[in-house]
Amino acid sequence: MSAIDPAWPVSEYAFPGPLRDQLVAALLDGTKTSTSSLLLEYSANEPLPRAGDRAVVVDSAGTPVAVETVTTVEVCRLAAVTLEHALAEGEGFESVDEWRSAHEGFWHSDEFRDSLGDPGFHVTDETEVVCVRMSVQTL
């Protein structure tokens, strides 16, 4: 693999700590090939990812551990996330309901709500989710 391009953005999964460590480990061992975020997390300063985009994945210590390359991006309603996407998240989900429960727990956490500046934030079936598929090369 070639050197890391300093123009590539940093890809951070969850917040530093046990969840990020779990997600990064799943990326590195190849079980995690998709990820989800909320459309409202993106802005004019951080556009939606596109196929071919690359980013440097960092662990909880901020150390670069891999380069991810986006292969597909789909924006859909929370209620429309597919089982295929949920399984590809590599977190052991066996159903969309399990995937949704875990993600709602994260999106409704104090830490996430604080990051949005909205202590009452709540997702619904209509909340738009960005479903990203990617390939990963370890460093």
Descriptive report:
The protein has one domain: Sulfate adenylyltransferase (Roll), CATH 3.10.400. 26% of the residues lie in helices and 27% in strands. The chain is built from four helices and five strands; from the N terminus they run βαβββαααβ. It has a five-stranded mixed beta sheet. A hairpin with a 5-residue loop joins strand 3 and strand 4. InterPro entries: ASCH_domain, DUF984, PUA-like_sf. Residues 13-137 form the ASCH domain.
Number of domains: 1
Q: Structural class of the secondary elements?
A: alpha+beta
Proportion of residues in helical segments? 25-40%
Order of helices and strands: EHEEEHHHE
- The second-level CATH architecture is Roll
Distance between the termini: 8 Å
Shape: globular
The poorly predicted ranges are none
| Rg over alpha carbons | 15 Å
Strand content: 25-35%
CATH class: Alpha Beta
Biggest pleated sheet: 5 strands, mixed
Query: Strands across the major sheet, in which order?
Result: 1-3-4-5-2
Report the CATH topology name. Answer: Sulfate adenylyltransferase
User: What would CATH call the homologous superfamily?
Assistant: Sulfate adenylyltransferase
Whole-number mean pLDDT = 95
Using DSSP, what is the number of strands? 5
DSSP helical segment count: 4
Key terms for this structure?
139 residues, 5-stranded mixed beta sheet, ASCH_domain, PUA-like_sf, alpha+beta, single chain, DUF984, Sulfate adenylyltransferase, globular
Quick recap:
This protein is an alpha+beta fold. The protein is 26% helix and 27% strand.
